[in-house]
């Protein structure tokens, strides 16, 4: 089962910042938070990831709370092309080089003109 | 474009048949992952290979098998196909087993 909880849908006006929340209260100390998005039925697109500190790249910013039980993905200036399903994932790594992503239902973000 | 390629893009077949899906990872990536996305189950992890060795298994049916070849490309074999196997199948790859996964465009399988 997914270790994250996200709102099923959100709306945002074009040009505004989109803030997508995620709860991961059972996250372990060495588990990373990853964000992907999926536009229509395309392959999931990697956005950003983090462990403890806030992270920023050319696509987005990731804010992780100090207790690591929740995080927020920020798209600073949303465009219509940012309309997609956004997945917050706690990446699982174990044993001898094993890794998997457990996807939940994600948040369907709609950017309105 | 993630650099991960998958063929074919679309596949239509009949129940009981067998198909092979192919994935070429990004140049230099050693680990390959397969995921299935169906309407009722969402995106589910199937299996991971690292440098030719199986490293993790998820909800992969016994009718399904995969392998990673010496040139690092991977194939997912689906046999005795059922209507419920209709789905999108995604391949992802990462440089090493603990790195970020990058997904391919997927193969849409339709079983009639």
List segments of chain A where confidence is low: pLDDT < 50 over at least 5 consecutive residues.
none
* Count of DSSP H/I helices of chain B: 0
- How would you describe the shape of chain B? globular
- Give the C-alpha Rg of chain A: 14 Å
Give helix % range of chain B: under 10%
Using DSSP, what is the number of strands of chain B? Answer: 11
Mean pLDDT across all amino acids of chain A: 95
Summarize this entry quickly.
The complex is a heterodimer of chains A (113) and B (112). Chain A is built from no helices and 11 strands.
Structure, described:
Helices cover 0% and strands 48% of the residues of chain A. Chain A has no helices and 11 strands. Chain A has strands at 9-13, 18-23, 33-38, 45-50, 55-56, 61-64, 70-75, 84-90, 92-94, 98-100, 107-112. The model of chain B has no long low-confidence stretch (mean pLDDT 96). Chain B has 112 residues and is mostly beta strands. In chain B, strands 2, 4, 5, 6, 9, 10 and 11 form a 7-stranded mixed β-sheet that branches. In chain B, strands 1-3-8-7 form a 4-stranded antiparallel β-sheet, with no helix packed on it. The interface between A and B is medium-sized, with 23 and 29 residues.
State the main characteristics.
heterodimer, A: 113 residues, mainly beta, five-stranded mixed sheet, four-stranded antiparallel sheet, B: 112 residues, 11 strands
Chart the SSEs and their pairings.
The complex is a heterodimer of chains A (113) and B (112).
Chain A: E1 9-13, E2 18-23, E3 33-38, E4 45-50, E5 55-56, E6 61-64, E7 70-75, E8 84-90, E9 92-94, E10 98-100, E11 107-112
Parallel strand pairs in A: 1-11
Antiparallel strand pairs in A: 2-7, 3-4, 3-8, 5-6, 6-7, 8-11, 9-10
Chain B: E1 5-7, E2 10-13, E3 19-24, E4 31-38, E5 42-50, E6 53-57, E7 64-68, E8 74-78, E9 87-94, E10 102-103, E11 107-111
Parallel strand pairs in B: 2-11
Antiparallel strand pairs in B: 1-3, 3-8, 4-5, 4-9, 5-6, 7-8, 9-10, 9-11
């Amino acid at each position: 089962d997914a270790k994250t909880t996200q709102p099923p849908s959100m709306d945002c006006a074009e040009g505004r910042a989109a803030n997508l929340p995620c709860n991961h209260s059972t996250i372990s100390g060495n588990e990373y938070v990853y964000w992907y998005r999926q536009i229509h039925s395309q392959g999931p697109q990697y956005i950003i990831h983090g462990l403890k500190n806030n992270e920023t790249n050319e696509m987005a910013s990731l804010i992780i709370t100090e207790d690591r039980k929740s995080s927020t993905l920020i798209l600073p200036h949303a465009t219509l092309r940012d309309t997609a399903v956004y997945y917050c994932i706690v990446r699982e790594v174990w044993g001898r080089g094993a890794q998997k992503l457990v996807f939940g239902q994600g948040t369907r973000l709609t950017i309105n003109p | 474009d993630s650099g991960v390629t998958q063929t074919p893009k679309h596949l239509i077949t009949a129940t009981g048949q067998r198909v092979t899906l192919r994935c070429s990872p990004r140049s230099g990536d050693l680990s390959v992952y397969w995921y299935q996305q169906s309407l009722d189950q969402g995106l589910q992890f199937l299996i991971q290979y690292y440098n030719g060795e199986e490293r993790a298994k998820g909800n992969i049916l016994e009718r399904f098998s995969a392998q990673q070849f010496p040139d690092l490309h991977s194939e997912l074999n689906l046999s005795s196909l059922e209507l419920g196997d209709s789905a999108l199948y995604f391949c992802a790859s990462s440089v090493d087993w603990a790195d970020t996964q990058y997904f391919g465009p997927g193969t849409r399988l339709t079983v009639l």
